[in-house]
Amino acid sequence: MTPDDMRRDVRTENLWKIYQQASEEVQAVRDVTLTIQPGEFTALAGPSGSGKTTLLNLIGGLTRPTRGQVRVADHELSKLPNHVLARLRLNQIGFVFQAYNLLPVLTARENAEFPMLLQGVSAEERTRRVDELFARTGMEGLEDRRPGKLSGGQQQRVAVVRAVASKPALVLADEPTANLDSASSDALLDLMDELNRDLGVTFVFATHDERVMERSRRLIRMVDGRIDSDVIRVG
Amino acid sequence: MARIGRAHRLTGLLTLGCLATFGTASAQIDPLEIIDQVEQLYRGDSSRGTTTMQVVTENWDREITMEVWSLGDDYSLVRILAPAREAGTATLKADQDIYNYLPKVDRTIKMPASMMGGSWMGSHFTNDDLVQESRLINDYDIELSFDGDRDGIVVWEFTLVPKPEAAVVWGRIEYRVRQTDYMPLAVSYYDEDGELARSMEFSDFANMGGRVIPRLMMMRPADKPGEYTSMRYEDLEFDVDIDESFFSLRALQNPR
Amino acid sequence: MMIARRKAFQIRVIAVLALRNLRRQVRRTLLTATAIILGAGMLVFSNAIGDGTHEQWIDDGVRTGSGHATIEHPAFRMSRKLEDRLAADVRAVAEAALATPDLADRVTGVSAQLTISGMASSAAGARPAHILAVDPQAEVDFTNLDDQVIEGRYLQSDDRLAAFVGVGLVETLDLRLGSRLVLTAQDTNKEIVGQLVRVVGVFRNGAPPVDNTVVHIPLAIAGEWLGSGDDVSKIAVMVEDSTEVSSLVRRLRQALADPVDAGRVTVLGWREAMPALASLVAVDQFGSYVIFAILFVIIGFGIVNTVLMSVLHRHREFGVLQALGLTPRQTGAVVLLEGLLLTTVSTLVGVGLGTWLTWYFLGDGFDMAVIAGDSLANNMEMGSVVIDPIIIPMFSVARTLQTIGWIMLIGILASIYPALRATRIDIAESMKFDQ
């Protein structure tokens, strides 16, 4: 185990994100201080515009804070240059987005293998991990399909497989169920729940989907860029 | 070395020299000697004269009055007196070279060899006609072809055929001479096919400056019917007091 | 091990992405590829035609007198006078140099000639003439006028009072075979002297300045006429093609170093000897370059369009790539590689096409009249050079590499901007769902 693995928690301290929209200043994230422990299954909830996506992006290093700090795996993100941030995302963070997650020119398998390929994982290992995860997600037989030939639910499952196959410390999912019917949503949530429990992967969702909130074990509600409530649910 | 013998010389006219004194026609005619003597008409010491040249072509005609100075074969100077527009324009012939002086632009132009074929002052004479100095007797074999009466005048007619390598363009020249005083009457130039190329006529014989000469010379190109160039002497004097220095480029540019 | 593999994998990922992206946009890719292929093909072919044309002009000009290189008195170029002719000893050195094996192998023709400005006259009149006194035997290999005989024949070595005359002069002086022709010029004593020659042959070159003034006569008779003996005004040297000229000139200058330094002789390449032709070639070349530049701009815009459009349309995709861990630079590399792949493959195909076309026309030549129409069906004349409407294209490896290099450069330049755009994507912005 590397020291990175020992500090796999996510911390934000007095985090602010302010940006200009038209002539108005938007305070998307306001003074958020938060710690997410390894293995948590956390939902960031709130109406649209509450700042949950921005917070997720800040944690994922996709956007830079105006003030404050984000620490992921003991790295202070705001101090890292872009290419190091990219490396950090590659090795520590998996992403699942609302839609159009997959690279259209790659097959399901190639999409799933993509981060591992960048990491330099050997072919056998990649095949082993993807085969296993595809089996778990019911995606067997669809490995060679391009995203255009997959349903929305199937695409999101590939995205989840891709997010976890590279063994990140943290998976960030932004409205992963937004475009799915309830059956697909449930299946996807089952999958993530399972992976969280079996592999200990930390999941953070930004969502306003009640079902996601239901399934989360920690629910952070955001209003106007601030944390309104933070409830750890047991059971 | 071959000399050019293209036409009957204009040089001759510009170089009016002393007339040879003629003996009476002997019974035994020597064509070579007669032609040489006629040619002598245009060879001599120094002269000064005024001539009027008239050029008539299909498209235009013009008349130029000019003063002509000459010294021997090698030197002549022609300066236009009229029309006023061209007055001062001058041509100098010194040895083998021809220079043109244009007072309007104050320029002297030396005529290159390649321009010698060009027309001299718009006439039917070429620049080349001015400089050539060949003697017909050197370039041609001469035979008497007629001896008798033509239009009431007793004449000799000679046929001149170029020697094999003579640098002359004519295929044949017909030369008519008045027997009484060895005056030239007409010269016709033929090409190799026997076609007439051009002809010259001499007339208006008169005593000028103490010598009898043809005052009027007419040149007609055969291929342009109706065109001609004529030269008429208005006055003429011989043995004027000039030397070679008179025919300098300075003299060309600065008339005395 | 892991790191090396990671690098290799990453490069592979970039390559695969670039390749697949090109394949995904088949229509756009094909359109741009076609533009590049046609552009490159046209470039190669028109370069070959242009170079072939110029080579033909040069060959024509060279054969009309000056040679690819000419050895002459330094003052001759300006004066054109008989007195500025080559001294006998200098000529001997020059001819010895030309006879050395390394030069003799390359030289395809040598013409020692006396150039005389004078007048040609007949009973019908007189015209300025450019008289070239030559050794008939050597000149046959050199001049192309002997291929343009329309009546009679070219000079022969036993000719004496013979002249080979341009058709224009023949017409104005009313000449025919056997006609008297009197040439007049200044001799070595600066006296104007005439020489009778007879027409043995008539040529039609097509260029009025040549047809109307040029007269070839045997050198021997010129020496007799002008008192110049065996002297010549220049020695014109011809080689296989114009690319060898500079080394020929250098070599001759070396061999003639002493007299050159003494100001007694000068060696000129055809560009210096025929500045009008040189500028004609340069102007024509410049014209081609302008067209090429326009072509390059079109190709460039084609590439920019294809690649930039693909970047703009794939904003989100590039966001995903970077979110997944591709660095900005690697993202740019994907784009750059797309442009490069497109350019490289298309250029090679285009160059292949152009080379094939060139090769196809190499044998019989390319008939410009087909393009230019009937007006060019016969000879064209430009300056004092006659242009044969049949052009034999000239293929050159250097030229082709140059073409490939240029288009590749354009391809790289045209891909840089879109690539930069790709590196500067705001990931969070690109991921917004409403985009």
Mean pLDDT of chain B: 80
CATH T-level topology of chain A: Rossmann fold
CATH architecture of chain B: Clam
Major sheet of chain B:
13 strands, antiparallel
CATH class of chain A: Alpha Beta
Number of helices of chain A: 8
Q: What's the β-strand tally of chain A?
A: 10
CATH H level of chain A: which superfamily? P-loop containing nucleotide triphosphate hydrolases
Verbal overview:
The complex is a heterotrimer of chains A (235), B (256) and C (435). Chain A has 235 residues and is an alpha/beta fold. Chain A contains 8 helices and 10 strands. Chain A has one domain: 3-Layer(aba) Sandwich (Rossmann fold), CATH 3.40.50. Chain A has helices spanning 3-6, 52-59, 82-92, 108-119, 123-137, 152-165, 182-199, 210-215; strands at residues 10-21, 24-36, 41-45, 67-72, 75-76, 93-96, 170-174, 202-207, 218-223, 226-232. In chain A, the strands form 2 sheets. A 6-stranded mixed sheet of chain A has the order 6-7-8-3-9-10, sandwiched between helices. In chain A, strands 2-1-4-5 form a 4-stranded antiparallel sheet, with helices on one face. In chain A, a hairpin with a 2-residue loop joins strand 9 and strand 10. In chain A, helix 4 (108-119) packs across helix 5 (123-137), helix 4 (108-119) runs parallel beside helix 6 and helix 5 (123-137) packs across helix 6. The radius of gyration of chain A is 17 Å and the shape is globular. The relative contact order of chain A is 0.19. With 256 residues, chain B is mainly beta. Chain B has a single domain, classed as outer membrane lipoprotein receptor (LolB), chain A (Clam), CATH 2.50.20. Chain B contains 5 helices and 13 strands. In chain B, strands 6-5-4-3-2-1-13-12-11-10-9-8-7 form a 13-stranded antiparallel sheet. The model of chain B is unreliable at 1-27 (pLDDT under 50). Chain C folds into 2 domains: 2-61 and 278-430, no CATH class; 67-273, no CATH class. Chain C is 57% helix and 19% strand. In chain C, the strands form 3 sheets. In chain C, strands 2-3-8-5-7-6 form a 6-stranded mixed barrel. In chain C, helix 1 crosses helix 15, helix 13 crosses helix 15 and helix 13 packs parallel to helix 17 (397-423). Chain C is elongated. In chain C, 48% of the residues are buried. Mean pLDDT of chain C is 83; it is low at 373-378. Classes of the chains: A alpha/beta (235), B mainly beta (256), C alpha+beta (435). Chains A and C meet through helix 3 and helix 4 of A and helix 1, helix 14 and helix 15 of C.
